Amino acid sequence: MAGAVWLDIPAHQPRSCKAAVTNRINHQAHTVGCKRWQRGYYERIVRDDQELERIRIYIRRNPERWAEDRDNLAALLERMTYHNH
């Protein structure tokens, strides 16, 4: 899985996992102290292969849904603009 970082950290310690991932990325990128998690991010423990596959499908299909995404400002402005046909 490209971009994944696998760590041997108990599933009940997601904060420790986030801290370890952040430290490892910043160490490798020589960017000590750089924030790596998006605002509003929440932890999700992947419990089995079926759940992992559902997540992979969601990620692959995500760009297809961008036109309808509420954070897509260009699409929102297009819908709000009056078009005289």
Describe the structure.
By secondary structure, the chain is an all-alpha fold. It has one domain. The protein is 44% helix and 0% strand. It contains 3 helices and no strands. It is extended, with a radius of gyration of 18 Å. It starts with 13 loop residues before the first helix and ends in a 5-residue tail after the last helix.
Rg estimate, integer Å = 18 Å
Helix content: 40-55%
Structural class label: mainly alpha
- Biggest sheet layout: none
Structural descriptors:
single chain; 85 residues; mainly alpha; 3 helices; 44% helix; extended
Please provide a brief summary of the model:
The protein has 85 residues and is an all-alpha fold. Helices cover 44% and strands 0% of the residues. The protein has one domain.
Mind sketching the topology for me?
Elements: H1 14-29, H2 49-61, H3 73-80
